[in-house]
Amino acid sequence: MPQKKYTLLCLGDSYTIGEAVEPHERFAHQAVEMLKQKKLFFAQPKIIAKTGWTTDELSAAIKEQNLQGIFDVVTLLIGVNNQYRNRDIENYRLEFTELLQTALRYANNNCQHVFVISIPDWGVTPFALKDERSEQKIAEQINSFNRVNKEVSEQVGVHYIDITPGSRKAKHDKTLIANDGLHPSEKMYREWAITLADKLHAVFKK
């Protein structure tokens, strides 16, 4: 009897598409490989994400792709570019809420199969030294955006994975940053993948 393969849809921006790393080093791809070792099999992730996207740009891209069907798991990580461009946080709340409802629809309205990932803190990267905002100011803004996406996630009842504290370790461990001086390295993505894989295993092996 053929082994069932679950499906995974990942919605986001540069952190989901894996800017500056190889495709197999993205967090979703690493999680799929980890789950394979636990005899839980997923097809290669379907990704709708692009470097630089804000919430409204991701929404527009989803509509443009007109993606049909239901997925066993959907991840959503979006908002860093809203923060980077100094977008209004209440507008983010509105657009993030709409995106989360879209993610839920793709997951057949199963809250247990939707995973929101917090926004990492790019303020500790070398790239941030070029920004007029201080490391502390960027951290405060990231925290504010994450308070919103966490609150909305909890209201809806989906899983929430807080990778932000771990992302701040890059201040003292540059191996967590890719060669572009901004995005996560394969090593940091591995940390995210471990958490996601553990949560997926807990859900699907019940």
Describe the structure.
By secondary structure, the protein is an alpha/beta fold. The chain has one domain: Rossmann fold (3-Layer(aba) Sandwich). Helix content is 46%, strand content 10%. It has 8 helices and 5 strands. Strands 2-1-3-4-5 form a 5-stranded parallel β-sheet, with helices on both faces. Strand 4 (114-117), helix 6 and strand 5 form a beta-alpha-beta unit. Helix 2 (27-37) crosses helix 8 (186-204) and helix 3 (55-65) packs parallel to helix 5 (89-106). The longest helix has 22 residues, at 135-156.
What's the short story on this structure?
The chain has helices at 14-17, 27-37, 55-65, 80-84, 89-106, 135-156, 164-167, 186-204, and strands at residues 8-12, 46-49, 73-77, 114-117, 159-161. It is α/β, with parallel strands linked by helices.
Q: What spatial form do the alpha-carbon principal axes imply? A: globular
Based on helices, strands and strand pairing, what is the structural class? alpha/beta
Arrangement of strands in the largest sheet: 2-1-3-4-5
The CATH architecture = 3-Layer(aba) Sandwich
Q: H/E element string? A: EHHEHEHHEHEHH
| Number of structural domains | 1
Oligomer: single chain
Layout of strands and helices, then pairs:
Blueprint: E1 8-12, H1 14-17, H2 27-37, E2 46-49, H3 55-65, E3 73-77, H4 80-84, H5 89-106, E4 114-117, H6 135-156, E5 159-161, H7 164-167, H8 186-204
Parallel strand pairs: 1-2, 1-3, 3-4, 4-5
